[in-house]
């Protein structure tokens, strides 16, 4: 797959990143990370199989590696995980994965800085500059969508995911309203393409 590794290589990269984090920094939520990344990969693959003009293996790979930058803890290093993932995937020669490491966080290339108070201004300016001439493709949108179905060790509906985000970062709904509306529109978009209710497809109750 041009721009991304095959599934076997992606799993190897994912495992190496996880091992690095555990060895060098510890990873108190390792079970949650594994559940989150593998779950998103499998969900992306399942939806992509029903989509015209999407490669389900590539969707799995991008879903699995979207949080690769979390091999470094954000709180200790002070660097946005999307930036870490982007830089490392570019250095490996996988620009499609690098893009996903960046875009999975943002509802639009012209996002409002106020919507992401947990990241530094430097990282937000970097992200906006990287996405300045970008249009999100179906892979960007798919990973963004499936990222909304996992909260802790549970597979959840979009509204439950956002309730978790609000509590975790002590936000008001208005802070994340654009992201919430984007997630709902993403769900409608893919359902219109696959003619299937995504919650039913992914066994989300």
Describe this structure in words.
The chain is mainly alpha-helical. It has one domain (7-201): Hypothetical protein af1432. Helices cover 63% and strands 2% of the residues. It contains eleven helices and two strands, in the order ααααααααββααα. It has helices at 7-24, 30-48, 56-65, 74-77, 81-92, 95-103, 121-130, 138-147, 158-169, 173-194, 198-201; strands at residues 150-151, 154-155. The chain has a two-stranded antiparallel sheet. A hairpin with a 2-residue loop joins β1 and β2 (154-155). α2 (30-48) packs antiparallel against α3. The relative contact order is 0.13.
What distinguishing features does this structure have?
Hypothetical protein af1432, 11 helices, 205 residues
**Rg from Cα:** 16 Å
Number of continuous helical runs: 11
**Unreliable stretches covering 5 or more consecutive residues:** none
Order of H and E elements: HHHHHHHHEEHHH
CATH secondary-structure class: Mainly Alpha
The rounded distance between the terminal residues' Cα atoms is: 34 Å
> Architecture, CATH level 2?
Orthogonal Bundle
- Major sheet details: 2 strands, antiparallel
Work out the helicity level: 55-70%
Largest sheet strand order: 1-2
- Share of β-strand residues: under 5%
Instruction: Count the domains.
Output: 1
Mean pLDDT: 96
The total strand number stands at 2
Task: Look at the helices and sheets and give the structural class.
Answer: mainly alpha
- CA-based shape: globular
* CATH topology tier name: Hypothetical protein af1432
């Amino acid at each position: 797959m041009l721009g991304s590794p095959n599934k076997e290589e992606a799993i190897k990269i994912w495992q190496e990143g996880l091992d690095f984090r555990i060895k060098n920094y510890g990873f108190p939520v390792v079970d949650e990370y594994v559940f989150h990344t593998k779950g998103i990969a499998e969900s992306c693959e399942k939806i992509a199989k029903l989509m015209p003009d999407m490669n389900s293996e590539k969707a799995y790979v991008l879903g699995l590696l979207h949080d690769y930058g979390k091999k470094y803890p954000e709180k200790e290093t002070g660097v946005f995980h999307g930036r870490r993932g982007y830089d490392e995937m570019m250095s490996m020669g996988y620009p499609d994965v690098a893009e996903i490491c960046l875009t999975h966080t943002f509802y639009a290339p012209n996002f409002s800085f106020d919507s992401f108070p947990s990241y530094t201004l430097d990282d937000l300016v970097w992200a906006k500059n990287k996405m300045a001439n970008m249009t999100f493709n179906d892979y960007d949108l798919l990973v963004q969508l499936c990222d909304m179905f996992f909260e802790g060790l549970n597979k959840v509906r979009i509204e439950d995911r956002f309730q978790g985000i609000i509590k975790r970062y002590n936000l008001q709904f208005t802070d994340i309203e654009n992201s919430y509306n984007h997630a709902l529109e993403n769900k409608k978009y893919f359902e219109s393409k696959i003619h299937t209710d995504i919650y039913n497809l992914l066994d989300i109750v």
